[in-house]
Amino acid sequence: MKRRDFIKTSMAAAAFTAASQGNIFSAMAAPKLKVGVMIPLSGPAALFGPSTKNVAQMAAEKINSGGGILGRKIEILFGDAGLPPAEAAQTALRMWRGQGCEAFVGMHNSAVRGAYNNVFKGQVPYVYTPNYEGGECANGVYYVGETPAQSVVPTMKWLAGEKKLKKFYLIGNDYNWPRDTNVIAKKTISELGGKVVGEEYMPFTVDNFDSSLAKIKETGADMVLITLVGGASVTFNRAFASFGLSDKVIRLGTLIDENTLLGIGAENSKNIYSAASYFANVQTNEAKAFAKEYAKKFGSKAPVLNALSGSAYDGLIALDTIAERAGSLSTKKMDSVAEGSEWDSPRGRAKMSNRHLTLDIYLATAIGTNFKIVKTFSRQDPGNFCKA
Predict the structure, then answer these.
(1) Count of domains in the chain?
(2) Residue range(s) defining the domain that contains residue 329
(3) pTM of the predicted protein model
């Protein structure tokens, strides 16, 4: 064989060998990890969905750039958690058993969380991300949102002292988050020497609050604690101003985010306060970096950042952190190492205790359709619940 032919043949053989090895290594690569991200894509909370979807994709890209979870790149599958609980549970079941999701992250209401718990029964990791009523630590579930002990108690006490508030009206949708939150609120009001002058729970389908607003006006309430969700909150707060209540009555909510405030409108937002662990204009280094990355990726016309979407980012990072620490997606192993797990977050350094987070809480007031932070409550404890 001539030298030239020998070289050509050798190079072809080498290329074949390399290609064969590449195919083998490709075939041996770890399969993607399907993570079900359950967010409201319909119903009254659907206004929170678009920004949450964006933020979840950001978190997945960050995790994948670092090698994925346990060496497996994440593939996100989105599920609609804005459906009634029974329907939302069937969606989650199909994604788990039918589509092969091996972990779940959920930003949705507490009624749906209960339905998911009944489906998963601690068999698959599930990170629950938004603020909620507190008091739970189910097997295989990890909570990264704030509780009333963190958001409602300190902010009500501060506002009552600053504004000399004595009469309180409570209004929310009719499910466990508003009802359980108000148990804590009523205890706080009693400690303040105040009086609850009204308490109402409305169906999600309500679209007229005239009767409630007439009662609020009649009772002479100084503050209304609002636990209405999404579209219901928008409708209520718009009508509130038309009843001439916004000049004198303080409104406080822990689910009035930037999206909801835009819906309420600048002309209806006077004396609205919101309490959360994150706002889009928080000026910490971590929060500013997060907002800059979001704007760079999705542009100036993207759905606005807010505490709920930010919680979904933390949810995926929490899943990654705890699974890597456990070396497994086994809920038993993850439960055993969740205590003390730490990660960097747009809300600052996160550390898990009893499967919840100690958090800084910001109290903000509405200025038109923007929020201005007026008080920070540092490192608030999530409260007492069962020991994990």
Answers:
(1) 2
(2) 33-146+281-357
(3) 0.90
